[in-house]
Design goal:
With about 240 residues, the protein is of the alpha/beta class. About 45% of the residues lie in helices and about 15% in strands. It binds NADPH dihydro-nicotinamide-adenine-dinucleotide phosphate (NDP). GO terms for molecular function: 3-oxoacyl-[acyl-carrier-protein] reductase (NADPH) activity.
Length: about 240
C-alpha cells in the first residue's frame, strides 16, 4: 500500500538515498531541500520537492500543507536534516552551539509535533524516524554541540514514543556512524583514518546502508518497534 512519506533534507547524502529507497517501494514521497535545486534523479522517480528551511516555523507549516495537498496527511516522517559546526569547547561560540541545537534538535521537535498532530487526526497510526548519530552515544572531541543535539534526539524520541504509542505511531532513532556524504567529506583525511581504526567493519558506511534501516523502521514489518535506538555504524558504538 502506498503511503504518504516526507523526508526532511532529502536532496543530499543520507536523505537522498532515503528518498530513493521509499520511492522504489512505491510510496508517495515528498522531500525538502533548502539550498540548490532538487536532484533530477529524485524528480525522475516521481518524488515531490518542497523548499523548506526547518529553522523557520512558517516554512515548516507551509511545507506540510503543500505535501498534504498533494499526497494526503503525512504517514511517515523522516527527520534527517542536520548540520555540524565542530570546534573544541573553549573555542566554540555561543552562536555555533545554538545553531547546531536549533537545526538538529529544536527543528526536529517542530517537525515531529506537526506530523504527530496530523497523524493523530488521521487515526491511521504512523511512523517517525529521527536521524541521530553514533556520536550521541560515544561522544566526540570537537563535537560537544553536535553530540548534545543528537543525544537530545534520543531523549526526545523515546519520550514521544511513550506519549503516542497507544495510537500506533512509532518513533525510532537511527544512529549512523561515519557515512560517505558531504558531512564526512568535510573531515580531514587523518581524522577519518583515526575514526576507521575504531570501526570493527573497518570502512565508512554508505548512505544506502542507512536508508535501508530507516525504510525498515517505517515499514509494516517494524510495527512493534518503538523507542529503539538503532545503530548503523559498522560496530563503532557497540557497548555504548
Ligand atoms: P549532508 O550534509 O549531505 O546533508 C544534510 C542535509 O540537511 C541536507 O539535505 C541539507 O539541506 C539539510 N539541512 C541542513 N540544514 C537545514 C535546514 N536548516 N533546513 C532544512 N534542511 C537542512 O549530510 P548527511 O547526509 O551526512 O547527513 C544527514 C543526517 O545524518 C544528518 O542529520 C547528520 O547529522 C546525520 N549523520 C551523518 C553522518 C555522516 O557521517 N555523514 C554520521 C551520523 C549522522 P541543503 O543541502 O538543501 O541545505
Amino acid at each position: 500500500m502506498s503511503r504518504s512519506v516526507l523526508i526532511i533534507g532529502g536532496n543530499r547524502g543520507i536523505g537522498h538515498a532515503t528518498v530513493r529507497a521509499f520511492a522504489q517501494r512505491g510510496d508517495s514521497v515528498a522531500f525538502t531541500y533548502r539550498t540548490g535545486e532538487p536532484e533530477p534523479d529524485l524528480l525522475f522517480l516521481g518524488a515531490m520537492p518542497v523548499r523548506c528551511d526547518i529553522t523557520d516555523p512558517e516554512q515548516v507549516e507551509s511545507a506540510f500543507r503543500e505535501v498534504e495537498a498533494d499526497q494526503g496527511p503525512v504517514e511517515v516522517l523522516v527527520a534527517n536534516a542536520g548540520i555540524s559546526r565542530d570546534n573544541l569547547l573553549l573555542r566554540m561560540s555561543e552562536e555555533d552551539f545554538a545553531a547546531v541545537l536549533e537545526t538538529n534538535l529544536t527543528a526536529s521537535y517542530r517537525l515531529a509535533k506537526r506530523a504527530t498532530r496530523s497523524m493523530l487526526k488521521a487515526k491511521r497510526g504512523g511512523r517517525i524516524v529521527l536521524v541521530s548519530s553514533a556520536v550521541a552515544l560515544r561522544g566526540e572531541a570537537g563535537q560537544t554541540n553536535y553530540a548534545a543535539s543528537k543525544a537530545g534526539l534520543i531523549g526526545f524520541g523515546r519520550s514521544l514514543a511513550r506519549e503516542i504509542g497507544s495510537r500506533q505511531i512509532t518513533v525510532n532513532i537511527v544512529t549512523p556512524g561515519l557515512t560517505d556524504t558531504a558531512m564526512a567529506a568535510a573531515l580531514p583525511e587523518d581524522r577519518v583514518k583515526e575514526i576507521l581504526r575504531d570501526v570493527p567493519l573497518g570502512r565508512i558506511g554508505n548512505p544506502e546502508e542507512i536508508a535501508s534501516t530507516i525504510s525498515f523502521l517505517a515499514s509494516e514489518e517494524a510495527a512493534y518497534i518503538t523507542g529503539a535506538v538503532v545503530p548503523v555504524d559498522g560496530g563503532i558504538s557497540m557497548g555504548h
